[in-house]
Amino acid sequence: MMSYTSPRRRLGVPLIASALMLALLVSCGGSNSSATDSTTAEAEEASAPESVQLDSTQVRLGGIAVEPAPSITASSLPVTGAIGYDANRVSHVGSRTGGRVVTLRVDLGARVSRGQALAILESPEVGQIRSEETEAQELVKIAGENFAREQRLAAQGISSRKELLDAEAELRRQQARLRSAESRLTVLGAGHGSDGQFAVTAPFDGVVVSRDASLGEMATPQDTLFTIADLGRVWIELDIFERDLARVRESQRVIVRTTAYPDRTFEGRIVYVGPILDVTRRTVRARIELPNRDGALKPGMFADANILVGTGGTPVVVVPVDAVQDMDGRKVVFVPGARAGQFVPQPVEVGDTVDGGRVIIRSGLAAGAPVVVRGAFVLRSELAKGEIGEHGH
């Protein structure tokens, strides 16, 4: 017997197959759409700049402050140096002849006046010359009296002219001997004193900054017994690197700071730039002179100085040194993002450090643009925490 399939049944099979095919296509299309949306979201997330999001409490506790980036029209060159004596007002005092120290008149740190006795020495050489001086004084007196007598006799016609001239010549010889003895004592610095004793004196008003003399010791002309310095003015020797030499010249203003007085500045001008390069350190010495009336600057101190190497011209952007952070080998500052409490790292190129603890921004930040001036390290730390979390996840 033959089977029979009604026309209705034959028509239903293709309809059901078509419906199944359409459902399958719709399902596949939906899956592709979801994948595309997911990929787009991931790309957008990857392309979004890294940032830190903080609430108002975190901003306050982190001490984060945002200000417009200032600009200046002067740049400075940071250098280091050492404070020393004014070489024109320091003297190493010693004896000009050998002698024994018999009295010390001043101690270390004493203020002295020009001509004041620092120590009393006793010298055989000075004793010998002073003896000759005393003898010459007596002979000058005798020769002077004899010459005066011959003048009176010659006026009366009793003495001859030859006897008068001989008396005058003898007086001149004794006077020459006296002057010679006095001159030799002066050369030895022993113009005043008695017997073989003489005083070593201060050459100018100043302070005893070194005392190497000891009571009873023998001193030679090569020995320094005292060092006297006028500390009312000091020199600061600055080290200028070879690469910066073209930017430095005489008369430029210099702002000086010391560790001892961090909140105080001292200002001077370059008065000398050395003609010779130190081949070991690759530096040239420059010098400034500073008044030091209160004695705050001590020879031997180190100094940090900023030479004002440029004024006027195109303004440059500056930010606090702490506002610039290192991230992945690049320098960045943080700027506010689009949302409240959002901060984004902005790559910048930095230049020289200027006075006041600021650094020049050569590129990457416009003058007046808002920038984080305090708390940048906190933001960098927060950003680092986020990166560590992502890698850990």
* Proportion of residues in helical segments: 25-40%
Q: How do the strands line up in the largest sheet?
A: 3-12-15-14-13-16
Strand percentage: 35-45%
**How many angstroms does the end-to-end distance come to?**
72 Å
Structural notes for this entry:
This protein is of the alpha+beta class and 393 residues long. The protein has helices spanning 7-47, 56-61, 124-156, 161-187, 376-392, and strands at 52-53, 65-68, 71-85, 90-93, 99-104, 111-112, 117-122, 197-201, 206-211, 218-219, 226-229, 233-241, 253-257, 266-273, 283-291, 302-320, 325-327, 330-336, 342-347, 349-354, 358-363, 370-374. The protein has 4 domains: 52-72 and 314-392, conserved putative lor/sdh protein from methanococcus maripaludis s2 fold (Beta Barrel), CATH 2.40.420.20; 78-87 and 230-312, Elongation Factor Tu (Ef-tu), domain 3; 98-122 and 194-229, OB fold (Dihydrolipoamide Acetyltransferase, E2P), CATH 2.40.50.100; 124-187, Helix Hairpins (Orthogonal Bundle). The protein is built from 5 helices and 22 strands. A 6-stranded antiparallel beta barrel has the order 3-12-15-14-13-16. Strands 1-19-18-17 form a 4-stranded antiparallel sheet. Strands 4-11-9-6 form a 4-stranded antiparallel sheet, with no helix packed on it. Strand 20 and strand 21 (358-363) form a beta hairpin. It is rod-shaped and about 125 Å long. The two termini are 72 Å apart.
